[in-house]
Structures are given as C-alpha cells and as structure tokens.
Amino acid sequence: MITEFGSDATREDFCPDLVVGATLASYCLTEVGSGSDAGSIRTKALRQGEKYIVNGSKMFISGAGSTDVLVVMVRTGESGSKGISTLVIPADTPGITYGADLEKMGWHSQPTKEISFENVEVPLGNRLGEEGDGFKIAMRGLDGGRINIATCSIGTAQAALNRTQKYMLEREQFGQNLAQFQALQFKLADMATELVAARQLVRLAAFKVDEGDAEAGVYSAMAKRFATDVGFEVCNQALQLHGGYGYMQEYPLERYLRDTRVHQILEGTNEIMRLVISRRLLSLADIETIL
Q: What is the spatial distance between Cα 45 and Cα 47, in angstroms, rounded to a whole number?
C-alpha cells in the first residue's frame, strides 16, 4: 500500500526498513462498530494547515503495540466509503495508546489490541493517495492480505496432513495400523486432493495480483474463501484421525485447529468473500470475462 500509493518521500521514510523486516507494520481498518461494513468507520482526521489531527480508535489490530508503523484508514470527508483516506503513522507518535492484549481462541503468538488516537498529529505528506482514496487503497491492500491468510491456511493444513500421514502408519488398532482401514484412507485422500486444489487457486490469485489483472480482487476473494475453508477442514479431519490424542496439547493438532479457525474471519469474512464474488459475476454480461 505504501509503495503503490505513497509519495516518494513517504516511500523513502518507511519502505527500506519494512521490506527487509527491520520494522513491522499494522493494517488498521476495523473498529468496534465497523467490521464487515468497512465504509462506516468513524475514526476522524481533521485537516489543520499542513497536518491532520486524528481522533478515534481501531479494534482487533494484529501486532498492535509491537509494530513500528500503522497504516490507518480514517474519515476525512462525507459518510460512506468516499469519505475515507489512508494515513501512515509511526506507531510511537504522541497521542497513540494501546489496550491490553485481547485473549483469543488462537493466534496466541501474536498480540492483538485496540488502538486509541487522541489528537494525534500526522503530516499531510503521510497520506496515501488523495483524500477520499482510502477505501480503494484499503481494498487493494486486502487483495494481498487475503492471499497471505489463504497461504497461512495451506501451510498449517499441510503440516496437519503430514503429521496425520505419519500417525496413521504408526498407530495400531484392532491388530493393524490405521493406514490399513479403507475409510480412513479415503479421508486422507480427500484431504490431500482438496489441499492441492486450494494451493493452486491461491497461486493463480497471487499471479493475478502480481500482474495487476483487472479481476485480481475477485480471484483473491475466491482463493481466500476456498483455502481457509479447506485449511480448517483438513485440520479438523486431522485432529479427528488422531482421536483423543489430537485433542491433547501434547500434539499440535488442537493448535492447528484453533489457529486456522480465525482465517475464515480475517481479511473479510468468508461470507463477505461470497458477496464480492457474486456481485462481480452478476455485474457481467458474460461470465467468461472472469473465467
């Protein structure tokens, strides 16, 4: 988002450290009253001379309190998506405070917090694009974010599949190992097949984004919806095939299940992904425009 929409000075200020991982950034869109309806955000940025004064709060922000840069969607104009702009704000700017770590079902290795902004001063030069471009910029950022989350699901599901394959060859019941039971063989076959299909769709969506394809957003939504559903289900089946051991913290299956569950919510719920896809399809005279 910064490299594509920021000024030369903004890119120079933030990107060299970000691209090598010397600093980290948080994407700040969601608010207490604004989740799937991203166009209804209320955090305001009032322009005063050569700066904005930001007031409001953001909720469920990944990495908050541990990152160095905040990319924040704010309201600079009218209600709705057309009144939203995007600002890049150093995370230690005076007036920014962070809430306590939110206690989550999964993703315990990553802090998630509420961020509050009280009279935070941000130079005009830290705006990405023009005033009113913020919603469009936020959605472009989500194209990549959805591919990232889909990839997380695939990686976790692959780990679950690998462990299950090994477990079935080792665990014995009724005088033979689990790998000898055809019903379980078929489950493993379905898990592997669906995971391969999800991986290929994610790679296609990533290619569309890299190429700047006009339908990249639709493919990102498809990939995110399919891969996160498949990833969770593969982990769920893997836990089932481990039996009672899968439910124990001694094995990683319960963590895989908890961590992949939120992927169906992050970067837009899978219900919103279906909305993105169906609205685009129904706006076309010829479905082959996408397919």
A: 6
From CA 160, how far away is CA 166, in angstroms rounded? 10
Closest among 124, 106, 112 to 60, alpha carbons compared: 112
Terminal-to-terminal C-alpha distance of the chain: 27
Q: How far apart are CA 181 and CA 214, in angstroms?
A: 47
- Quote the CA–CA distance of 62 and 3 in Å, as a whole number: 21
Residue 57 and residue 43 in contact, taking contact as beta carbons nearer than 8 Å: yes
Asked if 133 contacts 86 with a C-beta cutoff of 8 angstroms, the reply is yes
State the pTM of this model.
0.90
> How far is 251 from 246, CA to CA, in rounded Å?
6
- Domain 2-132 superfamily per CATH: Butyryl-CoA Dehydrogenase, subunit A, domain 2 (2.40.110.10)
- Give me the catalytic one of 31, 114, 254, 267: 267
CA–CA separation, 27 and 115 (whole Å): 11
CATH 1.10.150.120 given to domain 136-289: no
For 62-103, write each residue's pLDDT tens digit. Answer: 999 999 999 999 999 988 899 999 999 999 999 999 999 999
CB 245 within 8 A of CB 230: no
Q: Which of 136, 1, 28, 138 lies closest to 82, judged by CA? A: 136
Q: Is 267 a catalytic residue?
A: yes
3-state helix/strand/coil string of 106-124: CCCCCCEEEEEEEEEEEEH
Q: Per residue in 242-270, pLDDT tens?
A: 999 999 999 999 999 999 999 999 999 99
